[in-house]
Amino acid sequence: MKKNIAILCSGGDVSGMNPALKRFVEYALEKKLTPYFIYDGYEGLIDNQIKEASYCDVAGIINRGGTKIGSARSERFMHKEYRQRAKENLDALGIDSLIVLGGDGSFRGLHTFYKEHKIKFCGIPSTIDNDIQGTDYCLGVDTALNIIKISVDAIRDTASSFKRAFIVETMGRECGYLALITHLTSGSELCLIPEIEYNLDTYEAKFKEEIKNGRRYFIVIVSEGISQKSSEIASWFEEKIGIESRVSVLGHLQRGGNPTVKDRLMAFKFVTLAIDALLERSTESIVCYDAFGFHLKTLKSVVEKPHKLNEELLSLLK
Ligand code: F6P
User: Domain spans of the chain?
Assistant: First the structure.
């Protein structure tokens, strides 16, 4: 009997989801599986927005950000009765294997679903925040970093023309990864992330001295999860350093855009491994990536510990 397999996207979309969907359909068909799309995340799973997918559905999407099948954050999926409804929808179509592109919150919901209904799943870490314990890379991060790079390079042009301090705020929730990598690769003067305590006043003398020595502008990369608002950092520069300041919140720009080569390739590999894992009877795994390559980890090992930023990277900032 032909086996049926479904995919959904959950939580914040990332660039790389569309290339993943393309690989999903193509590789599933190659493996003689029938691929299904679940639209709008767990919401669509509950509401039976599940359709068989074909080559036509994924033609021309590899270069597009976002996700063709939509994503959502589902409150309803946290409730047993809706998970029961989701299971009935999958049963009606004979689907017993699920691939989920999402963050750790999405995976936790899946774990409960698995325990209750034994739907086999494989998770693919997908969040620009890069904050999933157990994997060094989440789909979408490279595209987000490249969008930020282009933005900071452009901000530098105007900052230097006007003798200003620019506070550039990146996303990341409680994780400073995007800000940290941006700082290391953009030549910014200061980086503030939730993982490292700071006191702006310790920089006052140094920055004033730099202005005396001819510095015309400052670029400060700030992660959205720090305790102060970006506007407060800007006020500090105006009041203490005496330089006109502006704030640029990059916001959802970071989630869109043409997926980079790295994200297209990672999408290809993540999905190939996920389908292989499900075919090899893996029941509840997450595909993780680190210096040694790709590995399957149990969901428990991925979600049970809080995420910690890589110490080696942090030491580069300290
Ligand atoms: O988790 C991804 C992320 O983009 C975070 O960096 C950000 O804080 C959040 O999602 C924004 O969520 P929303 O798209 O719901 O505003």
Answer: 3-140+259-307, 142-255
